[in-house]
Design a protein that fits this description.
The protein is about 55% helix and about 5% strand. The longest helix has 26 residues, at about 405-430. Residues about 15-25 have low confidence and may be disordered. It is built from 21 helices and six strands. It is globular and about 70 Å long. It folds into two domains: about 1-10 and about 25-180 and about 210-255 and about 445-500, Hypothetical protein af1432 (Orthogonal Bundle); about 265-405, no CATH class. InterPro entries: dGTPase, dGTPase-like, HD/PDEase_dom, HD_domain, PHydrolase_assoc_dom.
Length: about 500
């Protein structure tokens, strides 16, 4: 079969479009099927989105259902934009936009997410850099890219999922490595692209967010090659921009749904914060930053801090009138709407949640536009100004009234300790010469893969290979597998723990 005409469909390993019977299958649709058929995708059903389904006792989103909804929103955006001749022509000049590419990238974007949500990501990064000596550390987006390009072993060769260049490029929310690609590195831009700046507490560590480890940088270059001359090296492709925007939309809407379902979001607390700011916005805007910081938990102070943060980080789009209108719209829809009646599990309540979600999703999808020259902190595909502010306010509600809760912090500190203990136990196992023949087969394979990727003159090559293998191994566990494996390694489990995927 001939190679696809679209250069973005060229695979790294020489594959091509396949056929099902007499029906030719688009290489991009085949990519989507490969992703959905991967064990890494199925694993996401057991990975926390924000709160553990087991701990909530109710149906809440996990990484799998989140990915499915991101894909749904992303495809809706792509289909809407490509149906509009003005948007379609601009997208073609920027490198193209295919709904199948966008959907596949959205389905794959969280494949590398470790156990226990974003907490697991932060803990593994700290352990990888400080305990295991890996300069690249750990990053969920880079781990997803590593999975589809390197760590999924198919047959005799390690080829990843053999995805097309377009889908791999569309997965790259942050198309740079942590420290050195492209050159000059985008963290040195002023302002830096979103995610490219180094963490303030560790300015020498490189970008806070990045799309690929050094071991996958050649693949990143190959995936981005068809877009050379159309967009800067550090800029998302249009399809990646759509996927990223869809992720933001799904996060803003569906996490609010979850916290309403489990009774965490209370009308009184949210109303007090939003309405206090609306009543006293003039006063809040006039006070100094130290006085605002000293206001602590005074209703209205937190959302004023958000307003100032948006101006500080995103002056290109931040607007006080749009912010005030967003606060009012969220108050009407959330405080006077969704939160007005506690969730009781009834059919009526479920329908109410579904209508809330559909209304917001439609509002956001219809507000998407394409710009030929985006700000450095934006992509080519973005929300209109009013809806951009609404997403920020919805995400604020999530951060303020869920992530800041002491009970969630208590739960997460335990999960962080669990991951640290598990990494340490696996490291000791790898170093035990008497246990080499009894290592989990997947861990043994990952060590060999990591060692083969490193240059022979790499300092402490064996140690770094073992460290990367441990990170890859732990990142592929579900929440339940991580807990069960530590129980077994700690001698707390009374049963043999066997899981063919892991061992």
């Amino acid at each position: 079969m001939e190679q696809p005409a679209d250069p973005r469909a060229r695979r790294l390993f020489g594959g091509s479009a396949r056929a099902l019977g007499d029906l030719a299958v688009s290489p991009f649709r085949a990519d989507r099927d490969r992703i959905v058929g991967s064990p890494f995708f199925a694993r996401l059903n057991g990975v926390t989105q924000v709160i553990s389904p087991g701990g909530s006792g109710l149906l809440v989103h996990n990484r799998l259902t989140h990915s499915l909804k991101v894909a749904q929103v992303a495809r809706a955006i792509a289909e809407r934009l490509t149906a509009d001749p003005a948007h379609r022509d601009l997208l073609e000049k920027l490198g193209g936009c295919d709904p199948d590419v966008v959907e596949a990238a959205a389905l794959a974007h969280d494949l590398g997410h470790p156990p226990f949500g974003h907490l697991g990501e932060r803990v593994l990064d700290r352990l990888a850099r400080q305990r295991l000596g890996l300069p690249d550390g750990f990053e969920g987006n880079a781990q997803s890219y590593r999975i589809v390009t390197s760590t999924e072993i198919r047959g005799a060769a390690t080829t990843g999922l053999d995805l097309t260049a377009a889908v791999r490029a569309a997965m790259l929310k942050y198309p740079w490595t942590r420290l050195d690609h492209p050159d000059p590195h985008p963290r040195h831009l002023d302002p830096a692209p979103r995610g490219a700046a180094a963490p303030p507490e560790d300015p020498e560590s490189g970008s806070a967010k990045f799309g690929a480890y050094r071991t996958e940088v050649d693949d990143l270059r190959q995936a981005r090659e068809p877009f050379a001359g159309r967009i800067p090296d550090w800029q998302q492709t249009p399809e990646a921009s759509i996927m990223d925007t869809a992720d933001d939309i799904a996060y803003a809407i569906h996490d609010v749904e979850d916290f309403y379902r489990v009774g965490v979001l209370q009308q009184g607390a949210v109303a007090a914060e939003l309405m206090a700011w609306q009543r006293e916005c003039g006063h809040f805007r006039a006070i100094t930053s130290p006085a605002l910081a000293a206001a602590g938990r005074r209703p209205g102070a937190a959302i004023e801090r958000l307003r100032r943060q948006l101006h500080r980080k995103d002056a290109w789009i931040a607007d006080d009138e749009a912010f005030a209108a967003a606060v009012e719209h969220v108050r009407e829809e959330l405080v006077e709407g969704l939160l007005a009646l506690p969730f009781d599990g009834s059919i009526e309540a479920e329908q109410y949640v579904a209508r809330f979600s559909a209304r917001w999703s439609t509002r956001f999808v219809e507000a998407i536009t394409v710009t030929p020259e985006p700000d450095v902190r934006s992509g080519h595909v973005l929300l209109a100004r009013p809806q951009w502010h609404e997403v920020q306010v919805l995400k604020f509600v999530h951060h303020r009234f869920v992530l800041a809760r002491p009970d969630l912090a208590l739960h997460q500190r335990g999960q962080a300790r669990l991951l640290g203990t598990l990494v340490e136990a696996l490291w000791e196992w790898l170093l035990d010469p008497e246990e080499e023949s009894r290592l989990p087969r997947r861990l043994h394979d990952l060590v060999e893969l990591a060692e083969a990727e490193l240059h022979p003159r790499t300092p402490d090559r064996i140690g770094r290979a073992r460290g990367r293998a441990i990170v890859d191994f732990v990142a592929q566990l579900t929440d339940g597998q991580a807990v069960a494996m530590l129980d077994a390694l700690s001698g707390r489990s009374g049963a043999l723990w066997t899981d063919a995927f892991v061992l």
